């Protein structure tokens, strides 16, 4: 069985967040969704669980942060092209997300940033496969 990741995100409004995540290309899995949670599929092995605050709180005794004010994590998402990076960022902005900083272009790597309705940070990026294959030492010198 392939390794999988399920990213659990606390959200203020499950229905509104579901619409946002569908707008950026994810698909809702109705078998694992209800009024307090939406299971969103990004790929065969990567899923986002959008959980209302009350349900999320059953998984941890810690206080849920306000991701608009505090950064708890940034999720980097890889794409096959610069155009795909731009497309998901445009979709996120059109669906009500934010853009915390302008695009970054390092030649071998291109990235953008967006936040969802609750302030969770995403960093879609594209990296030149040839540059990536050369390893970290070569990438470190690419900016010079």
Written description of the protein model:
This is VOC family protein. It comes from Sphingomonas hylomeconis. The chain is of the alpha+beta class. It has 2 domains: 1-59, 2,3-Dihydroxybiphenyl 1,2-Dioxygenase, domain 1; 71-144, Roll (2,3-Dihydroxybiphenyl 1,2-Dioxygenase, domain 1). The chain has 5 helices and 9 strands. The strands form 2 sheets. Strands 5, 6, 7, 8 and 9 form a 5-stranded mixed beta sheet that branches. Strands 1-4-3-2 form a 4-stranded mixed beta sheet. The longest helix has 13 residues, at 82-94. The radius of gyration is 16 Å and the shape is globular. The chain starts with a strand and ends with a helix. The model has no long low-confidence stretch (mean pLDDT 93).
What keywords describe this structure?
144 residues, 2,3-Dihydroxybiphenyl 1,2-Dioxygenase, domain 1, five-stranded mixed sheet, four-stranded mixed sheet, 27% helix, VOC family protein, Glyas_Bleomycin-R_OHBP_Dase
Task: Summarize the helices and strands and which ones pair or pack.
Layout: E1 5-11, H1 14-23, E2 27-34, E3 37-41, E4 46-52, H2 53-56, E5 74-78, H3 82-94, E6 104-105, E7 109-111, E8 114-115, E9 121-127, H4 129-133, H5 136-142
Parallel strand pairs: 1-4, 5-9
Antiparallel strand pairs: 2-3, 3-4, 6-7, 7-9, 8-9
Q: Determine the CATH topology of the largest domain.
A: 2,3-Dihydroxybiphenyl 1,2-Dioxygenase, domain 1
Number of domains: 2
CATH architecture of the largest domain: Roll
Rg over CA atoms, rounded to whole Å, is: 16 Å
- Broad CATH class of the largest domain: Alpha Beta
What series of H and E elements makes up the topology?
EHEEEHEHEEEEHH
How helical, in percent, are the residues? 25-40%
| Residue share in β-strands | 25-35%
Regions with little confidence, pLDDT below 50 for 5+ residues: none
End-to-end Cα distance? 42 Å
Largest sheet: 5 strands, mixed
Number of strands: 9
What class do helices, strands and sheet pairing give?
A: alpha+beta
**Overall geometric form:** globular
Mean pLDDT, to the nearest integer, reads 93
Number of helices: 5
CATH superfamily of the largest domain: 2,3-Dihydroxybiphenyl 1,2-Dioxygenase, domain 1
InterPro entries: Glyas_Bleomycin-R_OHBP_Dase, VOC_core
Protein name: VOC family protein
Domain VOC: 3-127
